[in-house]
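User: Second chain of the day. Same drill as before.
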Amino acid sequence: MGMLRILLRSKQIVLTQNLKVYNRRRWFGLYSACLSTRINNTGFDLTPGAERDNESFLKSFPRVVDELIETKEQGFDDFYRHMKEVFLHNVPHGTLMYGLSSINAHRVLNKKPLTDEELYEVHLLAWSYEILRGFINVVDDVVDNAETRNRNLCWYKNKDVGLHAVQDAILMYARVFHVLEKRFCDKPFFPTLIGLINKFCWEVNMGQSLDIRFALNFRKTRSLTEFTMDNHDRMADKKVVMGIYGPMAVAMLARNITDPIAFSQAEHVSSLITKFFVDLVTISLLFYNSYIYHFATL
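Assistant: Same format as last time:
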């Protein structure tokens, strides 16, 4: 968020704090509406079952954490207790857009009821993206010297954490692959899934790097020459497109959809949604910043 922070002259803006009128359900309703073109004149229309998905998704997280920290190693109890705290602090918060959009896509694509274990595997795939989002956010907060994330103190700001948060983030990233291999290594889509996740991490971190580079150059030169729509679109594409396309693609893989044309079309639609989403966030931040500035100068 470095570029936006400079443009808005605010370093402490957090999306979930800014858009208080949108609770988690409405954000998911917005995304579902984007995917299914169900926006009507009365507001956002949640797709059937979305609220139920939200609740069951959150309830599945403790089991996911248990699987993440499960080990037969002796003498590492303190380490795994620490990792449990890392996951609980950095994952099940915010909009959960990645995970919920993946579950929504699963529900749309699936033509038969799922068993409890099949549903849990859907949730595990969805939580994998949320854990990766948490890994990226932990590092991003350190780089940005941020104070809060999702109304909580940033992980590195907690007592006895500090820059060790970077190591915790790497462990979060690595543990995702351990659980996915344990659960899905015999599935035909597993190699493609791993490639998709690696692409997600590369693309989003590339977008973060562009954001930081633009911000650093501005601080050095005080020049707005790099603040162009082309650079904005390039950064947004990298930071957001894979966050929207990736969870949908995972749902498609899990439903044995392998047609390259289908994936290409899904990525194209995701890029269109990205432009709408980024513009919405930017406008919301501008209005929020104006609101705060008005009351701060009274």
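Strands lie at 148-149, 152-153.

User: Great, on to the next one.
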